[in-house]
From TrEMBL:
This is Glyoxalase. Residues 3-133 form the VOC domain. Pfam families: Glyoxalase. Signal peptide: none annotated. CDD domains: VOC_like (cd08357).
Length: 143
């Protein structure tokens, strides 16, 4: 049985994070303070922490690595979903995200690691990936 993960990321503005993750992506808010907010990201604890060093226009730095012909941002984090919930989430975020890093698509089609994937960044530049497999147990670590 998988257990929920906990991850914390730096954000430049707490209210901006609340609007993006809560109102925009639809993640329920848990505990919070003026410095941080817990969000329920598909049953996982995703925490945004205020980092004043990012500044009003600041962005978390990243690099990219080539995967399947796309520049995958590093670092990134996200959630692996079942395929139908991923499709519904992809549809939802199309109305929220103005610019994808990688648009929702099927990667490694017809291969053991076939997956739906999409990448986008939050307003502070934290790269997020949401992916899906038709059979997570059999495909997540398939070679």
């Amino acid at each position: 049985m998988l257990t929920p993960f906990h991850i914390a990321v730096a954000v430049r503005d707490i209210e901006e994070a609340r609007a993006f993750y809560g109102a925009g992506l639809g993640f329920a808010e848990g505990r919070s303070s003026e410095q941080w907010i817990d969000f329920n990201m598909f049953g996982h604890q995703f925490v945004t922490h205020l980092n004043p060093r990012l500044g009003a226009r600041g962005s978390v730095a990243s690099i990219s690595n080539a995967v399947d012909g796309h520049g995958v941002p590093v670092p990134h984090c996200g959630v692996v979903l079942e395929f139908e919930p991923w499709l519904a989430f992809a549809e939802r975020v199309r109305g929220v995200i103005s610019e994808f890093i990688i648009e929702p698509y099927i990667r490694f089609e017809g291969q053991p690691g076939e997956q739906g994937t999409m990448f986008f960044a939050d307003p502070s530049g934290n790269a997020l990936e949401f992916k899906a497999f038709r059979n997570i147990a059999a495909q997540l670590f398939a070679r």
